[in-house]
Amino acid sequence: MPRPRNEPSNPKSAAKAINHAIDSQADIISMSWSPSIIRLGGPKQTGQIMDQVGSPNNVDYTCPGDGVSTERWGPGEIRETHSLTGSSVATALAAGLAALILYCAQVRLALSEGEERPTASASLGKLRTPEGMRTAFDTMRNEDRYLAVWKAFGKTDPFSSSRVRDDVVRVATTLSP
Q1: pTM > 0.85
Q2: Which of 42, 111, 121, 160 is the most buried (most CB within 10 A)?
């Protein structure tokens, strides 16, 4: 639920947004100032925690957050490239990763049959909790707390639809809590 531009961000508006997300049965709520559910920070390109994060003990995980390139199309199909930096960028990327993990688990459930179906359903249910997502993130986390997504996702051949399907199920199984 986007905040109207004329409405200041404050605890009341934040509570309203959170309640709306809960009422809408959102699986992921991304707030770079959220209570300590899953704490994320951005590393510098050297891999060290960015200065504004402070101590590495202030975060559970790190995700790219320094000089992240984004592209968007402007008026007249002109491509604009921007570079973004900060823990809010890392938080947004981690929220997208969490959504991708949930999607993989949903595909696994949709494709499962027989004895696998209850396991896939339970796994999806667990992943929808902070503890379950922590378990999935812990599977990818390296010694520097960086979410090394290649540990779970590896490389996929985008031209082989059957391979992509197998890879999605493999990822969901690997990251299952």
Answers
A1: no
A2: 42
